[in-house]
Design brief:
Chain B: It is found in: Cell membrane. Chain B: One of its GO terms (biological process) is transmembrane transport. Chain B: Keywords: Cell membrane, Membrane, Transmembrane, Transmembrane helix, Transport. The complex is a heterodimer of chains A (485) and B (301). With 485 residues, chain A is of the alpha/beta class. Chain A has two domains: 199 residues, D-Maltodextrin-Binding Protein, domain 2, CATH 3.40.190.10; 214 residues, Periplasmic binding protein-like II (D-Maltodextrin-Binding Protein, domain 2, 3-Layer(aba) Sandwich). In chain A, 41% of the residues lie in helices and 12% in strands. Chain B has 301 residues and is mainly α. Chain B has a single domain, classed as MetI-like (MetI-like fold, Orthogonal Bundle), CATH 1.10.3720. The chains are: A alpha/beta (485), B mainly alpha (301).
Chain lengths: 485, 301
């Protein structure tokens, strides 16, 4: 009997055949092995030398090729060393690193971004001190005094534990990004300097825009909160008094203004959905006129709209006058760390040195446009680029050094780390909640303040003088803070 | 005695070829488009629009995708996104791994679930209710809670940094639904079939292999499809179990190369997704009938 198979019929033979072919072609990958195959696509050394593993995240997207090219340069300069690059998704990098350490297969050098992450890894003894790197030549690559242990942001327990990637002011700089053509079209020849001007302009543009153009997008409302109260965002403590202060009158006024603008339809709709449409793309499309923005939005908007009349200004301040500046709490954000379990510490240190070299910083800046940790590498070029010069100007005008209890308040670090890492205490989340859901901000802020006060009382059991430790009487929110000796 | 179902025709000419079975195809009058089909078409379009948009975005520039609105037809066609998907997403390296990983997980799932389902379908099996209860309870445990013990277990077996260990970790938590599907199916198979096989001299395993497993094709089709799609799209398990061997990663992990900490390469991601969805679509086209039958309870007699 001849049995005809339709297209949808699967026979055991065909399934087994297909499985066999695929399994055979890649069968060697089925059973695990502890020796990673070199992923280098660049120059190898025949496997006779030292192999280093660098665990990073592909940031920004497309950085894989850049890092591979840079590692090839490193290998050329250091014959006998091969660098295997392991890329982990950004959100999973820390989890992946922890598992690698637990597996006994820690990378030699890894990206460990931010103070909480560095503290987490350093506390477990997974990061190696980099003090041998610190020579006069190394120090000269960075701004004067920026590698001081008390303020660098790269030190743990007095030892250098990380090297930076981006310029220290890249993150905390708060910009007011606006489309000068839209402002001009609706009769405004300058950006708003105060909150009332901002509200007036936003209303006028939205009203005349007839649903096509809006006045405002509150993308980084948290950046506006910086200038509203002394160190006015996380962790909701006024460092001049050591007391909780999220319910500060000026902060409440700011959030209530945005709540009003939101409920009256002045703000562009859709911003409430996180990640739905990035603010810079709506801005580049000319759908709204102005917004508080992070530094990296500038290049993104410019890529999408090369001819746009994009301008930068300081963020508008309260009508009663500026109360604080954007806070520079550390000279740098930690990025690269070296494993204490590296089998090749000398070679790993060479790689760390390379990642902190002016050549690498220059290459990263030229590739991605981000200001890197060594200003020598990019400052002259940045001044020739109007957008980048604008970022530098706003940064110089609106950024000031603030005390950082994480680095300075000996005995209060744990408390500070706990409240800064507590998602329930995030001021911006509470503020957005009030704006989006049209609820009074003050009671919400008072609730947060009450919770922080409870935590302070709890902490006093272990550290009786914790309030004193968190009070910096010599801190003037309108000036650069320097530690009084 | 011939039992004539309403859908069969009585053969008057014994030399005529037998009628082709009606495989659920609509008869001529049923194939006529009714007016409400036109009413449903826009809804169908809305349903498939995100998929079409993904395909369309993979041929657009980043600028056009972000600023160009909702239109599907690219103004300036580009294949750069596919080139980036191949290099940045490492599709060239990861496709073979993904097939190996998905098929291994699939084989583990089908073999284990069908055998378990056959055994558990016996009503007189001691402890059957307890095992079934544990299986159902296991459905409600999030994967995140089990990843550490599973990781330790695979490490202890010496299968870390290999696709077999990853496939085991992927297949094990996904076994519950397939087992229940097989239990439901085998529970409905007439006992006489098994008894007839035993009369012919078949043992327990032979009865399963020669009689029961072929009967269970609809369920197997369903399980194959579910398992393959789940494994093909898996992200967390292949990431965790290939930490020391990035060369063994799969497309699900490769896709994340398009995500930076602040920005995302959406057009590259769309191109990558378009490429990686092709095998799934092909598999579904092959197995859609058995999938539907399996889900619907299958034909058992």
């Amino acid at each position: 009997m001849n049995k005809k198979h339709g297209a949808g019929d699967l026979t055991r033979r065909s399934v087994l055949l297909g499985t066999g072919v695929v399994a055979t072609t890649a069968g060697c990958n089925l059973i695990g092995g502890s020796d990673p195959e070199p992923t280098s696509s660049g120059s190898g050394n025949g496997g006779s030398g030292v192999e280093l593993t660098l665990a990073l995240v592909p940031d920004p997207p497309g950085a894989s090729e850049f890092y591979r090219a840079q590692m090839d340069l490193f290998e050329e300069a250091n014959p006998g060393i091969t660098v295997n690059v392991i890329e982990n998704p950004a959100d999973q990098q820390l989890n992946a690193l922890e598992l690698m350490f637990q597996q006994g297969e820690a990378p030699d050098v890894f990206r460990c971004q931010g103070t909480p992450a560095l503290t987490r890894f350093a506390e477990r003894g997974w990061t190696a001190p980099l003090d041998d790197l610190v020579t006069d030549e190394f120090t000269s690559r960075f701004a004067e005094g920026s590698l001081a242990p008390a303020s660098s942001g790269l030190h743990y327990d007095g030892h250098l534990m990380s090297v930076p990637l981006v310029w220290g002011d890249w993150g905390p700089t708060a910009l007011w990004m606006y489309n000068a053509d839209i402002l001009a079209e609706y009769g405004f020849d300058a950006p708003p300097a105060t909150w009332s001007e901002m509200e007036e302009m936003a209303r006028a543009i939205t009203e005349e825009g007839n649903g096509q153009v809006f006045g405002l997008h509150p993308d980084r409302l948290d950046l506006m909160m910086y200038g509203s109260a002394p160190y006015g965002t996380l962790p909701n403590l006024d460092l001049t008094t050591g007391s909780p202060h999220l319910a500060d009158d000026t902060l409440v006024e700011l959030v209530e203004m945005f709540r009003r603008l939101q409920s009256e339809g002045v703000i562009i709709p859709g911003w409430e959905v996180e990640g739905a449409s990035p603010a810079f793309s709506d801005f580049a499309a000319g759908r709204f006129a102005m917004y508080p923005s992070a530094t990296w939005h500038v290049a993104e908007a410019r890529k999408l709209a090369p001819d746009m009349n994009l301008k930068l200004a300081p963020i508008p301040v309260p009508d009663s006058g500026r109360r604080a500046y954007s806070p520079r709490s550390a000279a740098f954000q930690p990025i690269w760390s070296m494993s204490s379990e590296s089998a090749h510490p000398e070679e790993a240190l060479l790689l760390m040195d390379f990642l902190a070299s002016i050549d690498f910083y220059r290459a990263y800046y030229e590739e991605f446009g981000s200001f890197t940790a060594s200003q020598i590498a990019w400052e002259d070029q940045a001044r020739e680029n109007p957008d980048q010069a604008g970022i530098l100007d706003v940064s110089a005008e609106t950024l000031r050094t603030v005390p950082n209890p994480q680095l300075l308040a000996e005995g209060a670090e744990d408390f500070w780390a706990a409240i800064t890492g507590d998602p329930e205490l995030r001021a911006i989340d509470v503020a957005k909640d009030a704006v989006i859901n049209d609820v009074d901000f003050r009671p919400l802020a008072e609730g947060i303040d009450q919770r922080v006060e409870e935590l302070l009382v709890e902490a006093e059991a272990d550290v009786p003088n914790i309030r004193d430790l968190l009070t910096f009487e010599d801190y003037d929110p309108l000036a650069d803070w320097t530690r009084s000796q | 005695m011939t039992i004539v179902s309403p859908s069969t025709t009585v053969r008057t000419d014994p030399t005529a070829p037998p009628p082709r079975p009606n495989r659920g195809r609509a008869s001529g009058d049923r194939r006529r488009i009714r007016w409400w089909h036109l009413f449903l078409l826009p809804f169908c379009f809305l349903w498939v629009y995100p998929f079409l948009w993904m395909i369309s975005a993979s041929f657009k520039s980043r600028q056009e995708m972000l600023l160009g609105g909702l239109h599907l037809w690219p103004q300036d066609w580009t294949f750069d996104n596919f080139q980036r998907a191949w290099t940045i997403g490492r599709f060239g390296e990861y496709t073979g791994n993904t097939f190996t990983f998905a098929i291994t997980a699939l084989v583990i799932t089908v073999v284990t679930a069908s055998l378990a389902g056959y055994a558990l379908s016996a009503k007189d099996l001691p402890g059957r209710k307890i095992v079934m209860g544990v299986l159902v309870a296991a459905m409600f445990i999030p994967h995140g809670y089990t990843i550490i013990p599973v990781f330790e277990l695979v490490n202890a077996l010496g299968l870390q940094n290999g696709l077999l260990g990853a496939a085991l970790a992927q297949a094990a938590p996904g076994l519950v639904v397939p087992v229940l599907l097989y239990v439901g199916f085998f529970g409905g198979v007439p006992k006489e079939l098994g008894e007839a096989a035993r009369v012919d001299g078949a043992g327990y395993l032979r009865t399963f292999v020669s009689v029961m497993a072929p009967l269970a094709k609809p369920v197997t089709g369903t399980v194959v499809l579910m398992s393959f799609i789940g494994s093909w799209n898996a992200f967390f398990v292949p990431l965790v179990f290939t930490l020391g061997r990035p060369d063994l990663r799969t497309l699900g992990v490769g896709m994340y190369n398009f995500f930076g900490t602040d920005t995302t390469d959406w057009t590259g991601l769309a191109a990558g997704a378009s490429i990686s969805v092709i095998p799934i679509v092909i598999l579904f086209l092959f197995l859609q009938r058995t999938f539907v039958e399996g889900i619907a309870g299958a034909v058992k007699s």
